[in-house]
Amino acid sequence: MLSYSTYKNCYALPALPFTAEDDTREIGGGLCCDGVWITESALFPSSLASYDFDPGEADYVDDDVVFIGCMSPVWGHAITDCLKQLWWLRTEDYLKNHADKRLYYWGLQPLSGNFLELVRLAGVDISKLRFIDHPVLFRSVIVPDISFNYTKGLVSEEYMETIQLIISNAKPTLRLDDKKWQKVFLSERPGLRTWGVKSIEKEARRAGFMIYYPGEHTLQEQISVLRSASTVMSFESSIGHNSVFCRPGIRLIMLRKANYENKYQTIINKLGAFDVTTVDTDLSIMNDDRFPYAGPFFVYPSEEMCRAIGLSPKQQEACRFPRKMFGKYLRWILWDDERSLAHRLSFSEHDAGILAREITKYRDQQTKRISKVFRYIPLPQSLKEKTVRKISKYIVRHFF
């Protein structure tokens, strides 16, 4: 059973992004009491990242407050980790004894837009919200237990009750029987982080999917679309975590953008008891193995995806690998991206085989001869940058 803890003379510390030398993408911040950092104040338990600070620089606030978590500007975290302590604001104890207290949170930036709307729909009185942007010493801080534990893969009923409250507070803008929104592809605008999206959208339209960009709509509109759909397709990333708002048991098609399992999505799939089909649509050969969720990604309509969305054999035959876009992806990642290529290279034999098969399928005899380089000579992880550039120039010259 979830409860809460009270910490006397507790420090609240703002977010402190670490530098590249730290070899991590986590951020430091949260609560510290008697020299011990409080695990429940982290984004998720295993991400607790402390840092040294001068207690003398902290402002003293002679008040008892409530801590409601780390609020991330990443949407996938916002609808999972950042809701994990809001359950306590619905309890009789809070409403009877603590409802007048201010609610503190930390993160990289204050809540705004859909992120602020999310906590409002979750029942938070936003007039009581306070952002921790400098060290503060409080007389006492109440810290609720977490209802969503990504590290252990555990989710309590209180988290799902928060999700249901958000859904019930959202005003519907669509009818559940609106046939136009029965099949929805939650897509994202093309950019330097994800390449090849348009080629997947093209095949999704042919299969009868509505293309929808959640980030361009209000949260209430997004929930209305998700509650109307009986089939939802999405990338297995933050955008796919929106499925937590879908009706239980719907069909869910998850497209992998890289060679890794998104454990957040696995948890959400179980919560919704969805009929899940996960397919590989990635050729993200330059993705960093240390941070596979960061990109840059290259996606394409694989044969597996075309079958999953219900394209006929003839339509599947007409599906084309976006070779020109792949050429642009290669050129950008090898010459225009400022991040270290040596740390990013992950051109495995598996990826080489995919590239060879796809290009061989749609190019002339010269392309087939060149593609044998990738079929029979896998590039090792330790390949030097100079050699990569030389081979890549050869690829681009002959392929694109």
Describe the structure.
The N and C termini lie far apart (60 Å). A seven-stranded mixed beta sheet has the order 3-2-1-7-4-5-6, with no helix packed on it. About 11% of the residues have low confidence. It is built from 14 helices and 16 strands. The longest helix is centred in the C-terminal third of the chain and has 15 residues. It has two domains: 166 residues, no CATH class; 221 residues, no CATH class. Helix 3 crosses helix 4 and helix 12 runs antiparallel to helix 13. With 400 residues, it is an alpha/beta fold. 34% of the residues lie in helices and 21% in strands. Strand 8 and strand 9 form a beta hairpin.
Supply the key terms:
400 residues; alpha/beta; 5-stranded parallel sheet; single chain; 2 domains
What count of helical segments does DSSP give?
A: 14
**Major pleated sheet:** 7 strands, mixed
Task: Round the Cα radius of gyration to an integer and report it.
Answer: 24 Å
How many distinct folded domains?
2
Give the CA-CA distance, first to last residue: 60 Å
What string, H for helix and E for strand, traces the elements in order?
EEEEHHEHEEEEHEEHEHEEHEEHHHHHHH
What structural class do the secondary elements suggest?
A: alpha/beta
How would you state the average pLDDT, rounded?
A: 82
User: Residue ranges: pLDDT <50 for 5 or more in a row?
Assistant: 20-26, 337-347, 362-386
Summarize the amount of helix as a percent range.
Answer: 25-40%
The counted number of beta strands is 16
What portion of the residues fall into strands of 2 or more residues? 15-25%
